[in-house]
Design goal:
Layout (H helix, E strand, L loop, with lengths): L5 H29 L3 H35 L1
């Protein structure tokens, strides 16, 4: 049987990776803007917003999984 906290731990690691990727993309967007590629930078920032939204969704799911785990034990 899988340890009950394994799934939330894996999701938390994926969420952290997603947030770091978003931050890297944000830095690339700043660089693109400085280079004059403002339209591309803007499109990249929209995708960064999507990553952040998904990270927040994952955060809520992790909290619910941990609540469910606590209520079972």
């Amino acid at each position: 049987m899988v340890h009950p906290k394994l799934v939330p731990a894996v999701l938390a690691s994926l969420q952290l990776n997603q947030m770091m990727i978003g931050e890297a993309f944000e830095e690339i967007a700043v660089w693109l803007e400085k280079e004059g590629a403002t339209e591309t930078a803007q499109k990249l920032r929209v995708r960064v917003g999507d990553l952040r939204f998904n990270a927040e969704t994952m955060d809520r799911a992790i909290i619910e999984l941990l609540k469910t785990d606590e209520s079972v034990h």
